[in-house]
Each structure stands twice: as structure tokens, then as C-alpha cells.
Amino acid sequence: MLVQAAALVLTYGVSGVLLWAGLEKLRAFAAFDTTLAALGLPRGLRRAVGLGVPFAEIITALGVVLLPGQTWPRLAVAGLAAGFAAAGLRGLRADRPVTCSCFGATGNAVLGWRQLYAFPIWLAAVVALDRMGSAWPPRQAVAHLAVVVGVLCGLRAAVLVSAWRRAADNRRAVGEVLYPRRARMFVAPDGGR
Amino acid sequence: MAVVALVLGTCLGVLLFLLLGAQVEMFRGLEQVREQAGLIDRVTPVDLGKVRGLAPSEVGLPATLDTEISAVVLFLSDKCVVCRSIAASLDGTIPRGLWLVLEPGTAPRDAELSQELGFDPDDVIIDWGREITHRIGIEATPLGVVVENGRLSRAATIPSSRQLYEFLGAARPITRQQPKLLVKSKGA
Questions:
Q1: Model-wide pTM > 0.90
Q2: Are B129 and B143 members of one domain?
Q3: Are residues B124 and B163 in the same domain?
């Protein structure tokens, strides 16, 4: 029971991260293309990699949730992790820091050690998923996918609310200086008498 | 039927995720534009230099501050627009843990200066001759100086009332009632 729950949580985690990364790369394609250009990929290859990586991430994420009994999704996770690590290594060797775009255009991370550190974690997750041998019927698998997407939406909404509050606070604070409430601020030296 | 509903829900969820992502990106873009235009209110730390670690009374502030565990001294001037907006937002009341030092710019008398900024003259410190400012060595307003364990510990510019309250919260002011003015530095 505990192993099954752990397998489910791990499946949610792996598929959620890959689904987020894949969808965001497709949504903000230009940012990912800039990253690939900074890594020194030629224009022709950039297009193929730029579309191939996000689609591979999405398909792998779907495979991990929908087809837990199959081996290929786990192999694909390991392959993607190796690719991320290679990109991190290339980022470290680049003349200038390469903006990551790993999870879309909204982050400020750079390619490098983070991807290298993540590599063994990805591999450990793959091994754990393999050992735990999770399996569920197709109907349940679709429900699990719905849960993963729901969680992603919830996390996104939390980020959005935070960004909105920051923007609103900033607008109020700047407006306070740009449009001061003169009537309350200036009191005549004689106290208005 | 249930599977179809789940698939549809998942597709809608993916669409929602993408739309939310676009909105987050829009807010980040707005922040970048504001940053470029200098329209971000952000506290900027200021180095206290030699006066760091000194007792407040050594720079001309009330000796009562020497025994405070935590307090914020806010320097306002009647010449600066941001100071006026902060003073207006305080609306004559001084939060606990906050000490106000008013630097005269255009007002000829202390009562006029405090009135102009909306405070009771007895609740604020008027820095006539800018003695306190000169001793601290920072010619910037609005400036917040944190007093911790009776010592001047750090300072920062305060660009808005929002940041003032955040600064006050970060300084963990004591909850004791703000005492009335004890010392006035009245020079030239």
C-alpha cells in the first residue's frame, strides 16, 4: 500500500515536471530557441530540437502516467535527463551564462550545475519507478493525468496570484508618489485658519 | 462517459495552464518595463559607515533610543515628494517602533514643518541645522535607520509607505507605546 502510494507520488512528480517543462517550452518557443542558439546549435537543427524536446517531454510525461507498466517511458525519462545534463555541461562551458528556459520564459535560471545535480535524481526516480512496478487500469490512468494537470494549474495559479499582488502593490506604491493626495498632505502654516 | 469527461477536463486544464502561464509572463514583462522606467519601489540598503554600531545618542538622536531593543528611525524632509507621500499615508499617526526625524527644507519654524507633514510637533524630532543628518553622514530622504539592541545597525532608502511598513515589520519593532519627544536637536 505504502509502495503504491510512493509510486503514485513519484509518477505525479516526474510527469508533472516534464509536462510543465514541455508545455511551457512550446508556449514560449522563442525563449527556448534563444537558449538553443546560445548553446551554439545551428539554425536548422535548432528548429528540430526546439520542437522535438518539448514534444518528447510531453509524450514521456503522458507515457509515465498513462502507461506505467511499459518500459519506454522510464527509458525516455533517463534519456531526457541525460540530455538536460549535457545541456548543463555545455552551458557551463559557454562564454556567457545561458538562460535556461527549462520551465518556460518566466524563470531567470541559467543552464549549468543545476542540470548536472538533477541528473542522478532523475536516474534515481527512474530506478525507483522501475522497482516499484506501478500499474493501474487505463481509466484510473486518465484520472491520474487529470490530477497532475490540476496540480500544475494550481501551482501556476499560485504563481500568478503572487505576480499579480506584486504588480498591484507596486502600482499603488508608485501611484502614491506620482499622484500624491495633496489635499491631505499640505496643511497651511497657520493650521488653515 | 466518465473517461471522456476526464479527457475533456484534462484538455481544458492544459489550456488553462497555458493561459495562466501567459498571464504570469505578462506580469513579469510589466515588472521589467517598470524597472527600466524606474517605477519599481524597492528598498535600497545604505551603508551606515562609521556610525554603524554607535549608540543613537552619539549621533544626536534621543538617548531613549539607546535602550530600545528594536526601532526604526525615519528621516523625512519637507522638500522631498516621496517624504510627503509617506507622511500623508501616516496621516499624523506614528506606528509603534517608529521614530520620526523631520529635516526642515522650506518651513521656517518647527511647528510649521511638522504641521506641513501632518504630525504633532511633540511627536517628532526636528533636525534643525541638520546636525543628526551630518553626524550620520547620509544625505538622503526618506531614509530608514534600524536601531537594534540600542545600536545603529543598518539603513535603507524607503521609497513608499508600503516599503516603510515592510521595513518596520522586518525590523521587528517592540510593541511598547511610542514615547513622546524627549530631545530636540535645535541648532542654528
A1: no
A2: yes
A3: yes
pLDDT at A107: 66
Q: What spatial distance separates the first Cα and last Cα of chain A, rounded to whole Å? A: 80
> How close is the nearest chain A Cα to the Cα of B154, in Å?
23
For chain B, what is the domain count?
A: 2
Distance from CA of A181 to the nearest CA of B (A): 7
Q: How many CA atoms lie within 13 A of B168 on its CB side?
A: 17
Distant-in-sequence, close-in-space partners of A42: CB < 8 Å, separation ≥ 6: none
Residue of A nearest to B108 (CA): A189
Out of A117-131, A144-158, B102-116, which region has the weakest mean confidence (pLDDT)?
B102-116
| B6 and B75 share one domain | no
Q: Say whether both B83 and B160 belong to one domain.
A: yes
Is there a single domain that holds both residue B121 and residue B33? no
Check whether residue B11 and residue B81 sit in a common domain.
no
Taking CA A172 as the corner, what is the angle to CA A167 and CA A173, rounded to the nearest 5 degrees? 95
ipTM of this model?
A: 0.79
Q: Are residues B36 and B48 in the same domain?
A: no
Q: Is A193 on the interface with B (CB under 8 A)?
A: no
Other CB atoms closer than 10 Å to residue B41's CB: what's the count?
21
Average pLDDT over residues A20-37: 88
Distances (CA, A) of B97 to A29, A48, A98, A157, B177: 50, 61, 46, 36, 8
CA–CA separation, B140 vs B78, rounded Å? 12
Nearest beta carbon to residue A27 from set B22, B116, B159: B22
The domain that contains B95 carries what CATH number? 3.40.30.10
Do B15 and B73 belong together in one domain? no
Question: Each residue of B23-46: pLDDT tens digit?
Answer: 998 998 888 888 787 777 778 888
Report pLDDT digits (tens) over A41-79: 888 888 889 899 999 999 999 999 999 888 899 999 999
Residue-averaged pLDDT of chain B: 80
**What is the extent of the structural domain holding B87?**
44-171
Chain B CB contacts of A186 below 8 Å: 84, 116
